[in-house]
Amino acid sequence: MGRMDHGQKGNNHKKKISLEPHQAGGLSKEEVELSKELDETYQIEEKPGFRPTGVKRKSE
C-alpha cells in the first residue's frame, strides 16, 4: 500500500489546448493571389489518401 493506491485527486478531464492554431475565416486577398501564382508555376505531387509529398515545377 503506497501513495498511489488511493486514486488521483483533482480534475483529470481538463480541456487541453490543441496543437494546431485555429484559423478563423478564409484566406486573405494576398494569400489568394499568391496561391494562384504558385498554381500556375508549380504542381503538387500527392498520392490518393495522403498529404502532398512533393512539388514539381511545371514545364512551360
Task: Report on this structure.
With 60 residues, this protein is α+β, with helices and mostly antiparallel strands. It has a domain at 27-59. Helices cover 22% and strands 18% of the residues. It is built from one helix and two strands, in the order αββ. It has one helix at residues 29-41, and strands at 42-46, 52-57. The chain has a two-stranded antiparallel ribbon. A hairpin with a 5-residue loop joins strand 1 and strand 2 (52-57). The longest helix has 13 residues, at 29-41. It is elongated, with a radius of gyration of 23 Å. 0% of the residues are buried.
Quick recap of the structure?
By secondary structure, this protein is α+β, with helices and mostly antiparallel strands. The protein has one helix spanning 29-41, and strands spanning 42-46, 52-57.
